[in-house]
Amino acid sequence: MDEQKKYNDTLSIGALREGFVLDHIKAGNAMTIYHDLKLGKLDCTVAIIKNASSDKMGRKDIIKVACPIDYLDLDVLGFIDHNITVNVIKDGKIIEKRTLNLPKQVVKVISCKNPRCISSIEQGLDQIFILTDEEKEIYRCKYCEEKYTGKK
Amino acid sequence: MAPRHLMSPLDFSVEELHKLLDLANDIEKDPEKYAHVCEGKRIATLFYEPSTRTRLSFEAAMMNLGGKVLGFHSADSSSASKGESVSDTMRIVSCYADIAAMRHPKEGAPLVASMKSLIPVINAGDGGHQHPTQTLTDLLTIRSLKGHFEGLTFGLCGDLKFGRTVHSLIAALSRYENVRFVLISPEELRIPGYVREALKNKGIPFEEVVRLDESTMKDLDILYMTRVQKERFFNEEDYVRMKDFYILDKEKMAMAPSDMLVLHPLPRVNEISVEVDEDPRAVYFKQVQYGVYVRMALIITLLNLEVS
């Protein structure tokens, strides 16, 4: 176990010259975020670090991406987990820390599960969810008002 | 100018709503004054599921105003049976009519229609979601017969889960001061979470009970009965178990306050015994007439017509 911990703690990934680092991702969520942000489609270097040590979280995931910050959909990221820290890197240094907010609406990211909702049959209709309770982080389908209950 | 639609009773502010109800009361007093207001106008009634009262009420309303009616009354007799989307149907109907009323079994369908429509769209009921014109009817009935909404206790009884009229009515009445709700339903048919959440957030007092008895009825100003809706159940067995859960009869009415009004969106099945019909507190047939007046007022308002 101690040997494994030693390996975990000493694994290092090269520093980023330009891009962004998503820090404080809940351990185990990095791949979901990788898919939801469609990072696999970007023509740039992506590093995923799983189960890194964290004073604050115990274990955490980190994603490093070598591409301009504009490529990142902060709304989607805010919806997935607004506690993630977004560090913008230029010339190897953190030049900005972006705060994530819960987006007012989420378009084409999640689907309504209500079988009676028009979005289950209408062709070409965007799936849209509206933030109806910021404190409780409740999103409801724009069309049928059904609460989104899937895992974020 | 972008057309104005009606999707939820909350689309009208309290002031706009009262203006609409005032107009409906004026129509009730002097229907002749409004008999030619919609001459040359057409309403399209797009009914993807069966409805007698709501469709006829819209059609009667338009005819009373001197306008004409076109439309369909089941999905089978529309292009939906060929797979046409709601958006496409609405774009096409926009070329044929001046205003449309849509009923659809899928929740949110009228909203989707309104997004592409060039004419005002009225939600005439979408699945178990909203039924704003029934709410306008209910509000007009209550205001006309009680004089106000403030301070009243409303008992809503029956299928509170799928009963869209109930959801719309609660939302509309929640805007008035000192209202209180008694929600009477079997455990399985309680109000949906979002309705309960909204009441809690607004600090409106409500209680959820199972029995319709003297202790439940004694403080009610309004008893709003609803039908257990067979078409909303996926399982016949559940429907059979629930359908006769509440029956309002003479005996129960004897326990109710002398000025309590009984409303029902109709059609009723067994939940109100026919012997109650003669009770002066039973106003559900008057409600139907108010439904025509309020739809007339709504058509005039959404078409932005001047009445001289």
Describe the protein's topology.
The complex is a heterodimer of chains A (152) and B (308).
Chain A: H1 2-10, E1 19-26, H2 30-36, E2 46-54, E3 58-65, H3 74-80, E4 85-90, E5 93-98, E6 105-107, E7 128-133, E8 138-141
Chain B: H1 14-29, E1 42-47, H2 53-64, E2 68-72, H3 86-93, E3 99-104, H4 109-116, E4 121-126, H5 132-146, E5 153-157, H6 164-173, E6 180-184, H7 193-202, E7 206-209, H8 214-217, E8 222-225, H9 236-242, H10 250-253, E9 261-263, H11 284-302
Parallel strand pairs in B: 1-2, 1-3, 3-4, 5-6, 5-8, 6-7, 8-9
Helix pairs in contact in B: 1-5, 1-11, 2-11, 3-4, 5-6, 5-11
Shape of chain B: globular
Q: Give the uncertain stretches of chain A in residue-range form.
A: none
For the record, the CATH architecture of the largest domain in chain B stands as 3-Layer(aba) Sandwich
Instruction: Indicate the low-confidence ranges of chain B by residue numbers.
Output: none
Number of domains of chain B: 2
Q: Quick check: average pLDDT of chain A?
A: 86
Tell me how many strands of chain B there are: 9
**Structure classification of chain A:** alpha+beta
Strand portion of chain A, in percent? 25-35%
Number of strands of chain A: 8
Order of strands across the main sheet of chain A: 2-3-1-4-5
- Terminal Cα span of chain A: 31 Å
User: Would you identify the CATH H-level superfamily of the largest domain in chain A?
Assistant: Aspartate carbamoyltransferase regulatory subunit, N-terminal domain
Q: Given the structure, what is the number of helices of chain B?
A: 11
List keywords for this structure.
heterodimer; A: alpha+beta; Alpha-Beta Plaits; 2 domains; three-stranded antiparallel β-sheet; 3 helices; 8 strands; elongated; B: 308 residues; four-stranded parallel β-sheet; 11 helices
Account of the 3D structure:
The complex is a heterodimer of chains A (152) and B (308). Chain A has 152 residues and is an alpha+beta fold. Chain A contains 3 helices and 8 strands; from the N terminus they run αβαββαβββββ. Chain A folds into 2 domains: 97 residues, Aspartate carbamoyltransferase regulatory subunit, N-terminal domain (Alpha-Beta Plaits, 2-Layer Sandwich); 37 residues, no CATH class. Helix content of chain A is 15%, strand content 33%. The two termini of chain A are 31 Å apart. The model of chain A has no long low-confidence stretch (mean pLDDT 86). With 308 residues, chain B is an alpha/beta fold. In chain B, helix 1 crosses helix 5, helix 2 crosses helix 11 and helix 5 packs across helix 11. Classes of the chains: A alpha+beta (152), B alpha/beta (308). The interface between A and B is medium-sized, with 20 and 19 residues.
